[in-house]
Amino acid sequence: MVLIGEQFACLKVAGRANFATSVDFKIVLAGLELKGYPYIIIELSDCSLMDSTFLGVLAAFGVRLNPAGANCVNQVIELRNANERLLELLESLGVLHLFKTCQGELPECEEITSAPCNPSREALTRASLEAHQTLMEINPANVSRFKDVTKFLAEDLERIQTKSG
Fold first, then answer.
1. pLDDT tens by residue, 85-120
2. Which has the least CB within 10 A, 9, 19, 29, 104?
3. Domains of the chain by residue range
4. Which CATH architecture group holds 2-112?
């Protein structure tokens, strides 16, 4: 769900945020970025879990829009109402510093909807590979966590492209 206010956009993430939803999430974020919203809120009160692919997409967005991290004056990315488990996960991956975090109600806004894009297996694999590479680039401690995953995803992507090409 996307909510739009005068000076911000809010994307509400509900349920399990995983590789299957990461492509749609990335497309919506890119659209909000393209429209130039100065402040983007990711509302997480109904998000129970994020997998590493989704976290990598979120982190890549954080790096691109806010490379100086949450301490910069023009903070543009806020994670609102994240549960303790999500915050600990973001901290353990070394990406929490990219975001402002807070709790509380959303400002007044209107809801807009977007249709899911139903990504192909190739698009899902590519998004997952890029997300894990991002996590490793941001925090070298993540290399040992994700090197086998990225190797597998790169090989799988190559197989998919060979079959379709």
1. 999 999 999 999 899 899 998 766 555 555 567 889
2. 104
3. 2-112, 121-164
4. 2-Layer Sandwich (3.30)
